[in-house]
Backbone:
């Protein structure tokens, strides 16, 4: 009862401290996770739950020492015949092994998540997303006179190009049902589409592989011209010659393919590039976004001038804009938060593992005090003693990593399946994870080993 009582008391003290620390760190955690959590200890159910958990933790953690130590007879203990058997050593090492296995999994997970995020940020999207301003055209009246605003904006020296579209890459892409040439009459095919202005391809700097772009020099382009991407060429079976192939959209538009663009991402990298159809909107009301490419210099000043020109044409409409690069990056907000959480929990798991290893190293150094003293009397150096004490812990780290590697591989491989375009998990990630855990473990053990090895042998052997 004494041992169990002490264990529960320590758990209760830890609970009180953890509530205070949680209250202090909760704003940081909310910022890290994107959540809005609060700690409300006025709820009776919450108080009962944490008290029950605390008592259970105290009883479970104190059960082994209480029942194990209280089972010895006074005669055995007082005669000095008590020795910690192999069972206790296995439990202690097993706990450290589990802690470092979890740490290894978190380290590998953190490295893989960060590698995938770097892959996303550096992958060629098929268009240039930098320095593109996106302005929503919410008012139908604003859409009808967008050409007036476009001319006003093109007069600004640092505005490179201006276009309009139904949507932008990273936004909601609509589907359309078409009747492509070469299919049985009446057979319809669903395909992604973006209704665009004439300068859409040049503004986004999308690579035109074959054919020509939409042009004001061809007035019929508004009703009879289509541009498709590489995926659409394969999807429609036009690999031999896509130019001149006819496409019909219901009863309101039909024409021919005038160009093929390189595949570019209209959605996040979670999804594959789908077949895409670009064509000019027949009605300005279909343009929901202004897209403006600006120069590298005087960005803030350029935006101020754009705002001034905007209010010339739309005095009643607010000037609201965003950068396409930021909008596109926000598609991976969940992954970014996951990366932060992985990193934070990796540090936490490593810290807890080091506490366990520190305790095990302290215990080992204590029970081997006489051995260390004898070895030093016979000429052992501090370095040799440290290496001998650290040897068994080194094997723990090796075994922990052997267990962690396949588990981490399975978890992260399944996570990467969420991305149609993803990086791999190279061998160096596992080696680096092992190196990190080994260095941290070695530093933890070396501290205690150095203290034990540095003692005076006379003090170590005095009790004999």
Residues:
């Amino acid at each position: 009862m004494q041992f169990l009582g002490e264990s529960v008391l320590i758990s209760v003290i830890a609970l009180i401290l953890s509530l205070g620390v949680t209250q202090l760190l909760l704003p940081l955690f909310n910022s890290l996770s994107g959540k809005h959590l609060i700690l409300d200890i006025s709820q009776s159910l919450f108080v009962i739950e944490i008290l029950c958990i605390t008592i259970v933790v105290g009883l479970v953690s104190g059960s082994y020492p209480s029942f194990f130590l209280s089972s010895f007879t006074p005669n055995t203990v007082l005669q000095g015949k008590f020795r910690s058997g192999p069972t206790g050593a296995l439990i202690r090492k097993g706990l450290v092994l589990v802690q470092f296995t979890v740490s290894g999994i978190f380290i590998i997970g953190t490295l893989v998540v960060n590698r995938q995020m770097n892959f996303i940020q550096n992958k060629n999207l098929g268009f240039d997303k930098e320095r593109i301003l996106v302005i929503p055209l919410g008012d139908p009246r604003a859409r009808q006179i967008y050409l007036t605003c476009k001319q006003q904006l093109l007069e600004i020296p640092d505005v490179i190009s201006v276009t309009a579209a139904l949507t932008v890459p990273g936004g909601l892409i609509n589907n359309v049902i078409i009747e492509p040439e070469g299919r049985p009459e009446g057979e319809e095919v669903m395909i992604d589409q973006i209704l665009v202005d004439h300068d859409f391809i040049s503004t986004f700097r999308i690579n035109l592989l074959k054919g020509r772009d939409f042009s004001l020099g061809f007035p019929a382009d508004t009703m009879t011209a289509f541009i498709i991407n590489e995926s659409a060429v394969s999807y429609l079976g036009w690999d031999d010659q896509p130019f001149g192939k006819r496409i019909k959209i219901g009863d309101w538009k039909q024409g021919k393919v005038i160009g093929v663009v390189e595949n570019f991402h209209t959605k996040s990298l979670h999804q594959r590039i789908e077949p895409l159809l670009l064509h000019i909107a027949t009605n300005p009301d279909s343009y929901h976004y202004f897209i403006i490419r600006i120069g590298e210099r005087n960005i803030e000043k350029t935006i101020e001038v754009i705002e001034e020109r905007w209010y010339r044409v739309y005095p009643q409409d607010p000037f609201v804009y965003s950068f396409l690069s930021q909008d596109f990056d926000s598609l991976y907000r969940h992954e970014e938060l996951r990366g932060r959480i992985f990193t934070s929990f990796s540090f936490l798991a490593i810290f807890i593992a080091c506490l366990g290893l520190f305790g095990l190293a302290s215990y080992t150094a204590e029970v081997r005090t006489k051995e260390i003293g004898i070895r030093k009397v016979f000429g052992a150096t501090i370095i040799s003693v440290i290496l001998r004490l650290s040897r068994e812990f080194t094997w723990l780290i090796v075994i922990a990593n052997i267990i962690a590697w396949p588990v981490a591989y399975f978890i992260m491989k399944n996570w990467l399946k969420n991305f149609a375009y993803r990086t791999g998990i190279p061998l160096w990630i596992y080696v680096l994870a092992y190196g990190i855990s080994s260095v941290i473990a070695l530093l933890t053990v070396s501290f205690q080993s150095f203290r034990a090895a540095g003692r005076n042998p006379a003090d170590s052997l005095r009790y004999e």
Observations:
- The CA atoms of residues 87 and 369 lie 21 Å apart.
- The first strand starts at residue 132 and ends at 136.
